[in-house]
Design brief:
This protein has about 450 residues and is mainly β. The protein is about 10% helix and about 30% strand. The radius of gyration is 23 Å and the shape is elongated. Pfam families: Peptidase_M23 (PF01551).
Amino acid sequence: MKTRMMLWASATLLAACGEGTAVDPASQTLVRDEVIGVSLPLPAQWSVRRDEVLFDTHGVFLNAPTSDEGVAQTGHERDAVARIALAYKARPDQLEELVRTKLAEYQEFHPTRTEVTLADGRTGIAITGLPGTQPYSIVYTVDGERVYEIGLWSDEPGLDERAKQVLGGLRFQAPTKTVQSLGLKTARESTYAELSAEREQAAADRKALVMKAILAGDLPQQQKFEDPPVRAMSCGFTAPSTLYWQLQWDWTNKFYSGAHYDMKANPGWSAMSGNGGSWWGTGYHTRFCETNYANQHYANDWPAQVGANAYAAFGGTVEWTGWGTDGFATLGRYVVVRNNGYRSLTAHLSSIASGMAWGTEIDGYYKVIGEAGSSGGDWAPHLHARVSYGESKTANGQPYGGETVKPLRLRCFNCNNPDVSVASGGGYYNDFFHGRWMMY
């Protein structure tokens, strides 16, 4: 067994993982966190990622590689498994209060509370049936004067075998480093950022292209989406011909370089799932027709390096800006913009643009909503982009349910190879496939 070092220290080999399953030392890595005060054996292929900012709890994400078959089907190479966190602001006598608060926050989902016994004999309180990007559970437990919050994602509601494997391997010990010693900024301090001069210029350039198209009559001043025709609710649908949205970056995207597209000389390109992510109708974002989770069947991942301008799919009312919490934590920083019954969600941002206040109206054509990044997971920087219809919102504003929507066409402004050109420049992409290069 190897021992991983990353504010992790050596520890003795744990004898078992899961419910009586023997550990193969050759395939395990023992990790020990000196800030949180936990250790556990992990499959050697799993990765560990520390919270990049300071929340009310401080934790590490565990990410597992998708199976070879899963990678072929989904594109994404890693899946969020768990977030193991120290509730450093809580005391053991507040445990019941924490549980009651969480149950009340998600009461509409009818979560289930049960007692569980961890491998070392201690008792934990599990809350299952919580919403998120996948089914989500939380296990609370206490060690001495410390309270722990263990979040677990699964394919189906409840504690699956993978979750039991994590819980079965956990061991607790007193931390040797404090959370404060990490010197992290708080989530509030690290949510918003001002645009740099370069990013301001890129937004101005995009606005000039937009105004040219508006003056020529190729674009409406503002799109106000109409609800789709009355029909039985389904799992998802293709957008009506009168409804379109736009590519969500500009020339600050210099992610790629190579023989065909030298981004330094010709910036502004991206590709459908060019970083190995998903693409419309297939891929990693496969939750479809789920009542209590974020339906993302028609989501797409657009590669964009950290710091590239990000735009919403369309203009409207800003309905969410901030960090995903609980089962939505894998979204990282994200922004939701609503236009009638449709919502644009753009996630994994490295920052959100100052001024993106909840309830404000934005012109989506040229209003920068944030910077591209990789927040929320162990993956290459990209924009996770999705449009939905008829979603509901949790008590704190995070979206779930509804239907995912596939675009019939995408508007580009500086493109020289669209499927349909317009007189004022730019045009529309109508044909979507994995790896297709597109210019904003």
